[in-house]
Amino acid sequence: MRYPKILTSSIAAYIAISIGIVLVYMVIFMHLMVYEGQYEYANLVNALYWVMASVTTVGYGDIVFMSQVGKIFSIIVQLSGIPLFFGILITLVITPWFEKTMKLPLAVKVPKNFSDHIIVCGYNPLVETLVEEFKEQNTKFVIVSDDDEVLRSLTKENISCIYGDPSDEGTLENANVNSARFLIANQSDNENANIVLTARKVSDVRIIAVAEDASKIKYLKYAGADRVISPKLVLGRFFGKKAADPYLGVLFGTTEFFEGCRIIELPIYSKSALIGKTLAQANVHERTGATIVGLRKGGQLTFNINPGDVIKENTVIIAVGSMEQLQKLGKLTD
Question: Model-level pTM greater than 0.85?
């Protein structure tokens, strides 16, 4: 089970405090045994044995206090033991076990008659846009990934996906690669190279690879990709086209990634309703279907965006989507 960083630190602190409390109880136990004259029990082994038996509320009764102070101490240990022991047990054992048990298993293969489909290896904002296009065009597709959390969220949205390593022969065969229309390798350059090599080994399916680094294009082609697309290269050509003709109409300046999927640069005008809103508040994808993949502020271009980024009058949005989706977004930026 994966815990968030803040939760992991909280659990570690809880365990450290629990161990500290047990050690304090052990020291008090030994002092009280000496106080009562039960010297034979005043050692670390008996102290640990008695404290753990009391904290877990087992209480065998073979070592007991005779004094009033000792009995009160026993009550305190037993009462504090309930949250101390069961808190750790529930947090580290029972809850993860329930979560693992209650999670439905992910699909690992498509139906045998699933054919003429598109296999997409990996999931990111670009694929999110492609999925919308596939749905609109009633195109069959399946997303292949070994990211458990991503696949579970996709499954909730009724998006076809299977769990597995896209560079594994068995996984691609489970995706019916031999009857697929084409395959898109959309992970890191090294992972894409492995995916292409594996896919070419088991099938003659048409392969499209996405290269993060334009210098890796030739290697992906050597590996067997029929076509290699570099987002950075496409963006470079796109901005070059805009620089050459700054008066080019906005929607006429789109550049195509895949069939039906385009990228565009949209400036935010002074009367736009998006000004002053964060990307999360703008809710662009839900309103238009287009996906924002980058921002340009004061001449600085960044693709490292987050939902808290504020849209200002001098902001330029880099978005991906179909022509219709980008036209809807264009109306919001005016």
Answer: no
Identity at 17, one-letter amino acid code:
I
Asked if 108 contacts 118 with a C-beta cutoff of 8 angstroms, the reply is: no
Residue 217 lies in a domain: yes
* Gap between the Cα atoms of 326 and 131, Å rounded: 16
Give yes or no: residues 68 and 163 share one domain: no
pLDDT tens track for 14-48: 777 778 888 999 999 999 999 999 999 899 999 99
Q: Is the dihedral of CA 169, 175, 176, 179 positive or negative?
A: negative
CA 311 – CA 266 distance, rounded (Å): 12
- Same domain, residue pair 136 and 97: no
Token pair of 97 as six digits: 């076990």
Asked whether residue 236 is domain-assigned, the answer is no
Q: Please tell me whether residues 12 and 53 are part of one structural domain.
A: yes
Which backbone phi and psi does 185 adopt, to 5 degrees?
Answer: -95, 110
Q: How far is CA 176 from CA 117, 120, 142, in A?
A: 9, 12, 10
88: containing domain: 5-102
pLDDT, residue 45, reads: 92
Residue 168's φ and ψ, nearest 5 degrees, are -95, 135
Kindly state whether residue 113 falls inside one of the protein's structural domains: no
